[in-house]
Design goal:
This is FAD-binding protein. Its cofactor is FAD. It comes from Gordonia sesuvii. Belongs to the oxygen-dependent FAD-linked oxidoreductase family. Pfam families: BBE (PF08031), FAD_binding_4 (PF01565). This protein has about 475 residues and is of the alpha+beta class. The chain has three domains: about 80 residues, Uridine Diphospho-n-acetylenolpyruvylglucosamine Reductase, domain 2; about 110 residues, Uridine Diphospho-n-acetylenolpyruvylglucosamine Reductase, domain 3; about 210 residues, Vanillyl-alcohol Oxidase, Chain A, domain 3, CATH 3.40.462. It contains 15 helices and 17 strands. The strands form three sheets. Strands 10, 11, 12, 13, 14, 15, 16 and 17 form an eight-stranded antiparallel β-sheet that branches. α8 packs across α11. Bound molecules: flavin-adenine dinucleotide. Flavin-adenine dinucleotide binds next to β3, α5 and β9.
């Protein structure tokens, strides 16, 4: 345990009445109360603890607590309440909210317990655990969790924002599969919430309250009987993009819920980690996962092969344990920007905008790394009726735009490329945000669009009862 705070941590952004009192003695008191670490600016380990997967998040908390267990979380949250500190939460840093400057950052990355109960078909997952161990343990019993495109993301953060993965159309979002949350409320009260215990808080957390209603210490989730799938990517050329997207817009809605699929225009970076023949080239990908009978899945993808032979064909039977191979997401930290829109339909005009903005013009470097359009509907849309983020899951197609910012000097150019693409798409989108695909201040600014008016009102009331001072203000905005 380290305490070496030597300079004031008061931050200009601290709301009135919530100034940070950084005296060494105050932090030492917290350090004495917990088994984990307490780190102030300048402490060894402070930079590592504030840095997450997305390197664009360069926040400077007044203090970072790295709890070792649930008891620590309770103590830290009570400390924050006594001191009037704003609280931010970080597990992996894949989905940063507004900068935690001057706040108390709870870094849950040391709380990684995972246990699978094959008889009950559930997994109990602690705050800092990623999907990788959950998937591995579940697959030993022929079971699968509703993870997303990568096993590197945190289970809790992903689930609080909804959680749309390759089994989504069949089984719904990850938030639908939650049996209970253990939460420490902003006043430091530990509660287990479920459909029968504190049902209002339970409802709010299943897609609506990421980072704003308290700290989740554990979640119990359902597992599903999925072991072998037919999954992968067809690689068509960059030139084929308009045709492939048009075909996907008609084809995907006709498919059964055994298939969750997407079409992606991808500018593979010219980096050594990208294998030839993809390095530095643009492709149009038809990707997804079929979780029904494998032979049926192969027949469905054959329709594409017969339409046009892809340049590379990686669709194959595979264990769901290998699900990372579908999206091939990066696993090393990087500076990235992400944004999103929902569309009910994919008209030609919208397709042309996406292709035009993502495919680099000859002689130019791409500002948007990829545009992925996931086909939703099915259980994703059906679950809207019982979820807080009803508007943020009802559309037919979910567009994700992502960029890398390898040099801070191009940050503004990338940001405006993403903003202008969204602006051009305005006539075709529903206006709702998918909360897992918005980050930084955009998460706060667009939170409300994810909820219907009634649900928003209900969420705001729940938030006001739990956190009247809005000290948990770095995640989804609920006011
Ligand atoms: C490479 C990549 C692939 C992705 N693929 C998908 C995908 O397929 N589908 C999808 O839906 N999303 C996907 N996402 C988005 C991802 O689900 C979100 O970014 C999610 O918020 C990440 O959660 P985390 O805990 O890993 O990240 P963090 O940045 O650590 O946390 C994200 C937010 O969650 C909240 N939070 C985290 N832990 C707690 C806690 N214990 N209590 C309360 N609040 C907490 C906080 O507000 C925090 O700001 C992807 C992101 C990346 C970078």
């Amino acid at each position: 345990m380290t305490i070496q705070t030597t300079r004031p941590a008061t931050h200009p952004d601290s709301p009135e009445g919530l100034e940070v009192r950084p005296q060494t003695s105050v932090l030492a008191e917290l350090a004495d109360r917990i088994a984990g670490d307490v780190l102030g600016p300048g402490d060894h380990g402070y930079d590592e603890a504030r840095t997450g997967f997305n390197l664009l998040a360069d926040h400077r908390p007044a203090v970072i607590a790295v709890p070792a267990n649930r008891h620590d979380v309770i103590e830290v949250v009570r400390f924050a309440a006594d001191e009037g500190l704003r609280v931010a939460i970080q597990a992996t840093g894949h989905g940063p909210g507004s900068a935690a400057d001057g706040a108390l950052l709870i870094n849950t990355s040391k709380m990684t317990d995972v246990s699978v109960d094959p008889a009950a078909r559930t997994a109990t997952v602690a705050a800092g655990a990623k999907w990788a161990p959950v998937l591995a343990q579940a697959q030993e019993h022929g079971l699968a969790p509703l993870l997303g495109s990568t096993t590197d993301v945190g289970v809790v953060g992903y689930t609080l924002g909804g959680g749309f993965g390759w089994l989504g159309r069949k089984y719904g979002l990850s938030s639908d599969a939650v049996r209970s949350f253990d939460i420490v409320t902003p006043d430091g009260n530990p509660l287990r919430v479920s459909a029968t215990s504190h049902p209002d808080i339970f409802w709010a957390l299943r897609g609506g309250g990421s980072g704003s209603l308290g700290v989740i210490t554990d979640v119990v989730i359902d597992l599903f009987p999925v072991s072998t799938v037919y999954a992968g990517n067809l690689f068509y050329s960059a030139e084929d993009a308009p045709e492939v997207l048009r075909r996907f817009a008609e084809w995907a809605p006709q498919q059964s819920e055994d298939l969750t699929s997407a079409v992606t225009v991808m500018n593979f970076p010219p980096l050594d980690i990208v294998p030839e023949p993809f390095r530095g080239k643009t492709f149009t990908l038809v990707r997804g996962c079929w979780s029904g009978d494998v032979a049926d899945g192969a027949r469905v993808i054959d329709e594409w092969r017969q339409w046009k032979t892809p340049e590379v064909d990686l669709w194959a039977e595979m264990p769901f344990a290998a699900a990372d191979a579908i999206s091939m997401d990066p696993t090393d930290p990087l500076p990235a920007m992400v944004t999103t829109e929902w569309l009910d339909e994919l008209p030609d005009a919208a397709i042309d905008i996406v292709v035009d903005r993502v495919r680099p013009k000859p002689g130019t470097l791409p500002l948007v790394l990829f545009a992925e359009i996931r086909h939703a509907g099915g259980a994703v849309a059906r679950g809207a009726a019982t979820s807080p983020n009803d508007r943020g899951r009802e559309g037919t197609f979910l567009l994700e735009l992502a960029s890398m910012v390898p040099d801070p000097h191009v940050g503004l150019a990338v940001e405006s490329a993403l903003r202008l693409t969204r602006k051009a798409l305005e006539p075709y989108v529903t206006g709702a945000a998918y909360l897992n695909f918005v980050e930084f201040d955009e998460k706060t600014a667009r939170s409300a669009t994810s909820f219907s008016e009634d649900n928003h009102r209900r969420l705001v009331a729940i938030k006001a009862a739990l956190d009247p001072e809005n000290r948990f203000c770095h995640g989804v905005a609920l006011h």
